[in-house]
Amino acid sequence: MYNKESYRTGHGHYGCGPMHGRGWGGHWRHHAEQRFGGGFRRVPVNIEETDNSFELSIFAPALVKENIKLSVKDDVLTVAYTAPEQQEENASQNNYRRREYSNGSFERTFLLNGKVLTENITASYEDGILKVTLPKNPETNKPAQDINIA
Question: Which of the listed residues 21, 106, 126, 129 has the most CB atoms within 10 Å of its CB?
Fold first, then answer.
């Protein structure tokens, strides 16, 4: 499974983003977007693989559950949150000296590579964690095999 967001923005655990986190594609762009409102906020995600599924745990506290949207199109899972207008208006009126968190809108995408049975995806939101269970497609998730060296 491929975390498209990490690749596209240069952020994330995989280290495969533009310029590998150096230059405008990484650190500085992130700060510019935060300061000048250049896009969605970034929410952290843990991806765990079990025998039968991939488990996404997205850290996103204090959300309105009804404003969370999950969709699958062209083998890409999109997790999006649209913050209520009143909440974003209040945030823009405050005069923060430092702001390390917000409950603003966000979007994350994950390329599924045919490894997930998309019709069986489930999700729940509890205690600030959005859990998404992606059942593995047994036809495309083959176990690892050892190769003998001659």
Answer: 106
